[in-house]
Amino acid sequence: MRRPQAVEKLHVCNSLVRAAPVERRGRSGRPVPRWPQQRSAVSTVIGVGIAVFDIDGVVADVRHRLHHLERKPKDWSAFFAAAGDDPGLDEGIDRALAAVAEHDIVWLTGRPSSLRAVTQSWLADRGLPATELIMRGHRDFRPAPVLKLAELNKLRSRGVELFVDDDVRVIAAAEGAGFPALLADWMTSSPALSEAQDKAGRT
C-alpha cells in the first residue's frame, strides 16, 4: 500500500499575496478600495492581519486648531484641548471603515496618552473601533518617524497589511522597513503640524 504523503509545514515568509480590489464609494463620493490590495503571508497563516491607521490628518481634521501652534510661544494645552472638536476627514474614515470589514484595526497616533478618553469617544462617535489605541507616553518626545517605526516593529508579528499616515517621513521609514504603507494626502499639509510631529515630537 502506498504511504500517505506527510503534511508539509507552513513557512511564513515576507512575500505578499495579491488580493483583487473591490471598489465601493464612501461618504466622500470617491471610490474606496477594499483593503488590503496586498495581503501579508503572515496574516494568511495566523489570522486576518491588522490595518494600522494614524488619526490626525488621516481621519481627524486638525486644521481648526493649528493656529495654537503657529503663535509664539506655542499653546500646546489649547491645541490638545480642542481635539474633541476635530471634524472628520471623509476619505480617511471611509478607508478605515473599509479596512474594518476584513481586519483588526490598530490606531497608532502621536497624540499624548492624556487624550485617550477624548480620542476613544471621538472614534466611537464616527462608528470607528477604538479598542486598540497606541499613543505617545508621558514625556515621550521622540520624532514621529522614530516613535511609529518602533511601534510598527512591535506589531510586525501580527501581520501588518496596511499602514496609513499623513507624514511623508513616517511613510518613508515604514516603507524602508518593509511595511505596506499609504500616504494620506487628503488634508492640506501644514508646516506647523510637520514641526509638531517630526521636530517637537508632540503629536
Query: Got a strand count?
Result: 9
What is the radius of gyration? Answer: 19 Å
Q: How much of the polypeptide forms β-strand, as a percent range?
A: 15-25%
The largest pleated sheet is described as: 5 strands, parallel
Q: What would CATH call the class?
A: Alpha Beta
Q: What is the count of distinct domains?
A: 1
Would you tell me the structural class of the helices and strands? alpha/beta
In the sheet with the most strands, the strands line up as 7-6-5-8-9
Describe the structure.
By secondary structure, the chain is of the alpha/beta class. It has one domain: Rossmann fold (3-Layer(aba) Sandwich), CATH 3.40.50.1000. It is 33% helix and 19% strand. The protein has helices at residues 41-46, 67-70, 76-81, 90-100, 116-125, 144-155, 168-176, 191-198, and strands at residues 16-18, 23-25, 31-33, 38-40, 50-53, 104-112, 133-136, 160-165, 181-183. A five-stranded parallel beta sheet has the order 7-6-5-8-9. It has a two-stranded antiparallel ribbon with strand order 1-4. Helix 6 (144-155) packs parallel to helix 7 (168-176).
Secondary structure blueprint with pairings:
Elements: E1 16-18, E2 23-25, E3 31-33, E4 38-40, H1 41-46, E5 50-53, H2 67-70, H3 76-81, H4 90-100, E6 104-112, H5 116-125, E7 133-136, H6 144-155, E8 160-165, H7 168-176, E9 181-183, H8 191-198
Parallel strand pairs: 5-6, 5-8, 6-7, 8-9
Antiparallel strand pairs: 1-4, 2-3
Helix pairs in contact: 6-7
